[in-house]
């Protein structure tokens, strides 16, 4: 897990003259993450992007003020279980009921079209037939076409864990949409009564 200390260290190393690739190698992270953490927040493009995200969050706050129970549940569910990226929605779990609720939130409250939704699945098996069954399980559960499925990954683990926790794998709903995730962040802050500037970066 990337920590606040990791990001701070990347900025320190950048100040000391190391290249992005050198920092990535030292911290064992992607070079894209290094560029994100070390870019100048006062650069005109950074300011422009941050202003745009603030506008999207304002939409989310307004949505929360007029929110339905589903809007509240979906937003707070993302706060608990979603990956806090700034330009896309990443929501993953093993619980089919939770995943079904979240995709209903996306479709009903945020009007996300199915063609924008992608699925990433991790499985604890090398059996191709079992893998296909797991993929079909999630496609059927979430009512998505096969085109939504991206490459399925093998996640190594012990036999007991596979059958008790990951029987149907770990599924991630992904939507590449800055406006969407920032709307959710705005709603979360409105429902929770707090501000989190880090979600703008």
Pick out its properties.
single chain, 201 residues, alpha+beta, 60s Ribosomal Protein L30, Chain: A, 9 helices, 5 strands, globular
* Shape estimate: globular
- Sheet of most strands: 5 strands, mixed
What is the correct CATH architecture of the largest domain? 2-Layer Sandwich
Physical arrangement of strands within the biggest beta sheet: 1-2-5-3-4
- What gap, in angstroms, lies between the N and C termini? 17 Å
Quickly count the domains: 2
Mean pLDDT: 91
Secondary structure class reads: alpha+beta
Q: In percent, how helical is the residue content?
A: 55-70%
How big a fraction of the residues is strand?
5-15%
How is the secondary structure organized here?
Blueprint: H1 4-15, H2 20-27, H3 31-38, H4 44-65, H5 69-81, E1 82-83, E2 89-93, H6 96-108, E3 118-123, H7 128-141, E4 153-154, H8 159-164, E5 170-175, H9 178-192
Parallel strand pairs: 3-4
Antiparallel strand pairs: 1-2, 2-5, 3-5
Helix pairs in contact: 1-2, 2-3, 4-9, 5-6, 5-9
What report would you give on this structure?
- With 201 residues, this protein is α+β, with helices and mostly antiparallel strands.
- It has 2 domains: 4-38; 64-200, 60s Ribosomal Protein L30, Chain: A, CATH 3.30.1330.
- It is 55% helix and 10% strand.
- It is built from 9 helices and 5 strands.
- The protein has helices at 4-15, 20-27, 31-38, 44-65, 69-81, 96-108, 128-141, 159-164, 178-192; strands at residues 82-83, 89-93, 118-123, 153-154, 170-175.
- It has a 5-stranded mixed beta sheet with strand order 1-2-5-3-4.
- A hairpin with a 5-residue loop joins β1 (82-83) and β2.
- α4 crosses α9 (178-192).
- The longest helix has 22 residues, at 44-65.
- The protein is globular, with a radius of gyration of 19 Å.
- The relative contact order is 0.16.
């Amino acid at each position: 897990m990337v920590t606040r200390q990791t990001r701070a260290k990347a900025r320190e190393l950048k100040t000391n003259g190391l290249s992005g690739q050198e920092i990535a190698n030292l911290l064992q992270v992607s070079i894209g993450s290094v560029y994100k953490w070390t870019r100048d927040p006062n650069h005109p493009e950074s300011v422009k992007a941050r202003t745009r995200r603030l506008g999207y969050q304002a939409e989310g706050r307004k949505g929360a003020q007029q929110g339905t129970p589903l809007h509240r549940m979906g937003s707070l569910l993302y706060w608990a279980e979603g990956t806090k990226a700034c330009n896309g929605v990443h929501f993953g779990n093993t619980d089919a009921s939770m995943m079904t609720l979240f995709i209903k939130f996306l479709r009903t409250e945020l009007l996300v079209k199915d063609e924008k939704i992608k699925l990433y699945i991790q499985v604890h098996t090398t059996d191709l037939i079992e893998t296909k069954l797991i993929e079909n399980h999630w496609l059927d559960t979430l009512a998505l076409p096969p085109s939504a499925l991206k490459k399925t990954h093998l996640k190594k683990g012990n036999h007991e864990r596979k059958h008790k926790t990951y029987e149907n794998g770990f599924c991630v709903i992904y939507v590449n949409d800055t406006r969407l995730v920032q709307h959710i962040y705005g709603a979360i802050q409105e429902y929770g009564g707090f501000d989190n500037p880090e979600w703008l970066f």
